[in-house]
Amino acid sequence: MEDSKKKSGFATAGLVLGIIGICTSFIPIVNNLSFILAIIGLIFSIVSLAKKASKGMAISALIICIITVFLVVTAQQSLSDSIDNAFNEFDSSMSDMTGDNTEEILKNSCDVVLGDFKITTGEYGIDEYELPVTVTNKTSETKSFSIQIEAIKSDGTRITTDYISANNLTAGQSQKFKAFQYVSSENAKDMKSATFKIVEVSMY
User: Fold this and answer.
1) Contact 163, 146 (CB under 8 A)
2) Which of 29, 100, 162, 186 lies at a C-alpha separation of 20 to 30 Å from 14?
C-alpha cells in the first residue's frame, strides 16, 4: 500500500509540474524554467506509466507536459523572430540614414530627376548657375531625403559636390530644388561641360 502511494506520487508530481509549466510557458525567460519543469514532469509521468500506477493521472500529466514543451519552444521561437526582425529593421533604418542603402532608396523610395545645367548672365554681368533637381517621395509615409550630387569632368574626376535636403515630403509629394548655384571661379569653366551624378541618398 505504501509502495502504491509512492508510485502514484510520480503522476501527481508530473501533473503539478505540467500545470505550473503550461501556466508560465508564455512568459519570456521564465519559460526556460517552464521547459525544465515540463521535462521533469514528463519523466515522472513515464515512470508512473511504467509502474502502472495512477494511469489516468499519468496520461494527463504526460499530455500537459508535452503541450508545455511545444508552447515553450513556440514562444521562444516567436520571441527570437521578433528580436531578429527588430534588429533587422534597426539595421535597415541606420543604413537608410547613413546612405548605405542608396540604390535601394532610389529604386523603391525616392525618385530624383536631374535637369539640364544652366548658366545665365545676371543683371550685373555675373554668371549664374543652376542644376534643376526634382525629388519625389515614392513611399506611403512622410519622409525626408538628403541627396549628394557630384559634378564630374569629362575625364571622370570630380569638380565639386552639392547637397539637396528634401524635408518632410508627404507620400507621393514632389519638390523642386536648384543645385550648384554657388560655383567658385576656379571651377566655372569645368562646370560648363560637366556631367552630374547622384552619389548618395539618405532617408529618415
Assistant:
1) yes
2) 29
